[in-house]
Amino acid sequence: MTGRRRFGMALAFAAILAGGCDFLPRMRSQPSSKPYERDMPAMPANLVPTTGGEVIPDAAKARTLANPVKVSAAAVDAGRTFYGYYCRHCHGERGDSRTPVGDSYLPMPTRLDSPRVQAATDGELYRAMVIGKGHEPVMKSTVPPERRWRIVHYIRTLGR
Ligand code: HEC
Question: For atom 30 of ligand 1, which residue has the closest CA?
Fold first, then answer.
């Protein structure tokens, strides 16, 4: 490389530095509210929460709990969609529970196509879905209750 070319490249690099690329953490330095910078808005007095505080049925109650959603092609279809949102990455499309994400859990995700899981009642599946050791407490807060019952219908199709 000639001296002239080297000088030219150095000049170009300097121009890039001087131009756009200043290596400042701009996301952080821009004007914006920082965590804990402001007080939380005060809550009006006497508020009563209308959601949350859900009670998951205990094992004995779950055993006899009936699925309030009638089984139908549409319910199973919706269940398959919701299963895709919340379960498939660990339990696999067909419930064999061998997936890259699931494989990193100990214990490994239970096979949903197994006779043991398929022998559970709908209520027991509902309960296991939200309180399984590997789930708690995420599934309870992420999967809305009415979706859970449709997912139960989909899990039933995995045993066949
Ligand atoms: C982050 C990974 C992960 C996701 C997401 C996940 N599971 Fe699991 N699941 C596990 C693991 C790990 C176990 C085994 C340990 C345990 O009992 O929780 C398990 C166990 C289960 C069991 C069996 C519990 C038993 O009685 O042995 C059921 C049923 C189940 N999952 C259903 C679901 C359903 C339905 C969803 C979606 C709503 C879901 N899981 C989402 C990881 C996951």
Answer: 129
Q: Which residue has the higher pLDDT, 141 or 16?
A: 141
Given a contact cutoff of 8 angstroms between Cβ atoms, the answer to whether 96 and 115 are in contact is no
pLDDT in tens, 37-77: 878 788 889 988 887 778 889 999 999 999 999 999 999 99
Residue 158 Cβ contacting ligand 1 at under 6 Å: no
Condensed to tens digits (0 to 9), the pLDDT of residues 114-130 reads 999 999 999 999 999 98
Q: Phi/psi zone of residue 36: left (φ > 0), alpha (ψ -120 to 50 degrees), beta?
A: left
The C-alpha atoms of residue 98 and residue 109 are separated, in whole angstroms, by: 8
- Rounded to 10 degrees, the C-alpha dihedral 147/151/73/95 comes to 160
> Considering only CA atoms, which residue is closest to atom 10 of ligand 1?
109
How much is the mean pLDDT over the chain?
A: 87
Does ligand 1 have an atom closer than 6 angstroms to the CB of 152?
no
Of all protein residues, the one whose alpha carbon is nearest to atom 21 of ligand 1 is 110
C-alpha 88/C-alpha 109 separation (Å) is 11
Residue 78 near ligand 1, beta carbon < 6 Å: no
